[in-house]
From TrEMBL:
InterPro entries: F-box-assoc_interact_dom, F-box-like_dom_sf, F-box_dom, Gal_Oxase/kelch_b-propeller, SCF_F-box_component. This is F-box domain-containing protein. NCBIfam families: F_box_assoc_1. It comes from the Eukaryota. It holds the Pfam family F-box. It comes from Eutrema salsugineum. Residues 12-53 form the F-box domain. SUPFAM superfamilies: F-box domain, Galactose oxidase, central domain.
């Protein structure tokens, strides 16, 4: 005699499904669930859910990598490649191309491309008119995980740089990207030495672009932030964002210091007693690891990294990386390309962008405990302008 099966219907509240299940799924999976219902779509596209999903992503999954190609394509477009780190595999994904504002007569002439470090899974792709010979510009805020992007107006620096005397060379200032922790507004900040554009007034000039979704009808760069610092910025160094502030190196004459911009008050302060104060400018970098501001110094054979602890307001030596065993080239001279680790992985290994070889670029996992390493990506150096890590997120701007 067959038993009759009894079906028990279990009603799971939608808010439980969305908050307790969907926020734990990868971005691509969550995007598919928007088609289930209008309620689910509205919840998934809410900033509250997106921020909860991002926090879970940062805690439970390895960061992804953006590789940026150094030059605009012949068509005048910039392109990205994203790399996802799995437990046993690595997957590459080529992005759509982002068109620049073109001057047909100058197409193909030294249009270099840069990318900012990530903030909440967003990055900014922008052109670098390095040799002052090109008027081709591009600037996009991009979410590499969702493929969302928005083009932004060029900054004053981009507009004025090509007008300079091309025989006068200077190191290019790099764009900063961060978030006001009080209002949640993301901001792009271009801080550079005023004399590189023959601007009068302050030693440094600050341009700010607020990605304010409540006032997106009037998106423009502002130039009203006063830089209360008499010392010039060290160009060519990536600024670092942590805890609602952006940080740059400054040349104080006899030593290097850190200049910090609080993104809510838009005021500056100087950190003068830093562990790399006396190091050569070409050997220092800064980054964010484990949600802390970090400074690094390359000494040829080793790279030492200090992190700033806010609980006791002190710098602590965190890592000493054996560069000879880690990098692909045997270092006989001063380390040519000074780059900090891209990220700290969940198993406490470091992800390093190795550009010490003039012909190839590698991504390396480094174990600071055993001082061992493993290479997992090799690319031709001239194709890449750099690599940055990011956590995949759903965040976009209206």
């Amino acid at each position: 005699m067959k038993r009759k099966r009894t079906l028990v219907q279990v009603n799971i509240p939608e808010d439980v499904v969305v908050e307790e299940i969907l926020e734990k799924l990868p971005v691509k999976s969550v995007l598919r669930f928007r088609a289930v219902s209008k309620v689910w779509r509205r919840e998934i596209e809410s900033r509250r859910f997106q921020e909860r999903h991002l926090k879970h992503e940062q805690k439970s999954r390895e960061p992804s990598i953006v590789l940026v190609k150094r030059r605009l394509y012949d068509s005048g477009e910039a392109g990205l490649t994203t790399l996802s780190l799995g437990q046993t595999s690595v997957s590459l994904d080529n992005h759509i191309h982002y068109p620049a504002v073109l001057n047909p007569e100058q197409l193909g002439r030294f249009e270099f491309v840069r990318i900012t470090r990530s903030c909440d899974g967003l990055v900014c792709l922008y052109s670098e008119n390095y040799f002052m010979l090109s008027e081709n510009t591009c600037m996009y805020v991009i979410n590499p995980a969702t493929r969302w992007y928005r083009q932004l107006p060029e900054a004053r620096f981009q507009a004025l740089a090509p007008d300079r005397d091309p025989m006068i060379r200077f190191s290019y200032p790099l764009l900063g990207f961060g978030k006001d922790d009080i209002t949640g507004i993301h901001k792009l900040v271009w801080l550079y030495n005023s004399d590189c554009l023959d601007l009068d007034g302050q030693t440094n000039t600050c341009e700010v672009f607020s990605l304010d979704d409540t006032n997106n009808t009037n998106w423009n760069w502002r130039h009203d932030v006063i830089v209360s610092c008499p010392h010039p910025i060290l160009h060519g160094k990536y600024p670092a964002h942590v805890h609602g502030s952006l940080h740059w190196f400054i040349d104080a004459g006899t030593q290097v210091q850190v200049l910090s911009l609080h993104l809510h008050t838009e005021t500056f302060m100087v950190m003068d007693k830093i562990p790399v104060a006396s190091a050569p400018h070409g050997c220092i970098t800064m980054c964010t690891l484990n949600n802390r501001l970090c400074l690094s110094e390359d000494k040829g054979d080793t790279q030492t990294i200090w992190s700033f602890h806010q609980d006791n307001m002190a710098w602590h030596k965190t890592y000493v990386i054996d560069l000879r065993s880690t990098l692909s080239a045997c270092i006989e001279e001063e380390y040519r390309f000074t780059t900090p680790p891209l990220a700290s992985l969940l198993d406490h290994r470091l992800l390093i962008f190795d550009s010490s070889d003039s012909h190839t670029t590698n991504l390396v996992r480094y174990n600071p405990t055993s001082k061992s390493f493993s290479q997992f990506l090799n690319a031709t150096s001239y194709c890449l302008a750099g690599a940055i890590s990011y956590s995949q997120s759903l965040i976009s701007l209206p």
